[in-house]
Amino acid sequence: MVAMAGDFGADVRLVAFMQYLRVLFVATAAALVARIGLGDAAHSVSLLWFPPLNLGFSVTLALMLTGAWLGTTRLRIPSGALLLPALAGAALNASGMAILQVPEWLLALAYVLIGWSVGLRFTRPVFLLALRTLPQMLASIFGLMLLCGGLAWMLTRVLHIDLMTAYLATSPSGLDTVAIIAAGTQVNMAFVMALQTLRLFTILLTGPAMARFISRYARPATE
């Protein structure tokens, strides 16, 4: 969402503020639900920050750089630097043609760069605007969490899965955050990751079109 915001004229700073606030609340709620629902069976997962690098790491770097260059410079796809490497990586990884390797230190570096690029754009007026709109942001986040909780309950009525699996599968948090929580619990990991990945790519594929529609027809509020 942060990557797509700048391509469609949205205020990247406000988008990032709300997105990271959403992840904070949703991830905290998911961790609490896992702890309460599973008790001592829920445990934290230790991360291997510097694993041995293999050929998959070289393929990952090549895919990142080539996909970002093609998506933005040659094909000029909206959010091409994100969409093209993501789709190509999913196709390669799912087909078994290449096993990509993304070590934790590379993820952390990417998050740091995104944080700096967004945080350094904040000014005092934008910060005050974010504070003024904080109640609306919180209301939308809590409403989204309740909606996804209702969807999780519906999944348990339709499919033969437990509530914890359904909750993590429909949680509107980051894919990596849900993966870490799910890996430390006794849930159906395959179902959780399948539904979360489907949600991610649905958002990536429909997000640009929705953003283009909103930026075309939305009008800024007048004082």
- Helix fraction? over 70%
Structure classification: mainly alpha
Strand element count = 0
What oligomeric state best describes the polypeptide chains here?
single chain
Order of helices and strands: HHHHHHHHHH
- Biggest sheet, in brief? none
Look at the structure and give the mean pLDDT: 78
The rounded distance between the terminal residues' Cα atoms is 28 Å
- Extract low-pLDDT stretches: none
Rg over C-alpha atoms, rounded to the nearest angstrom: 19 Å
Figure out the total of helices: 10
Percent of residues in beta strands? under 5%
Approximate shape: globular
Overview of the molecule:
With 223 residues, this protein is mainly alpha-helical. The protein contains 10 helices and no strands. Helix 2 crosses helix 7, helix 7 packs across helix 8 and helix 9 runs antiparallel to helix 10. The chain is globular and about 45 Å long. The mean pLDDT is 78.
In short:
The protein is mostly helical and 223 residues long. It contains ten helices and no strands.
What are the defining features of this structure?
10 helices; 223 residues; 73% helix; 0% strand
Layout of strands and helices, then pairs:
Blueprint: H1 2-5, H2 12-38, H3 55-74, H4 80-95, H5 104-119, H6 124-132, H7 134-158, H8 163-170, H9 175-183, H10 189-217
Helix pairs in contact: 2-7, 2-9, 3-4, 7-8, 8-10, 9-10
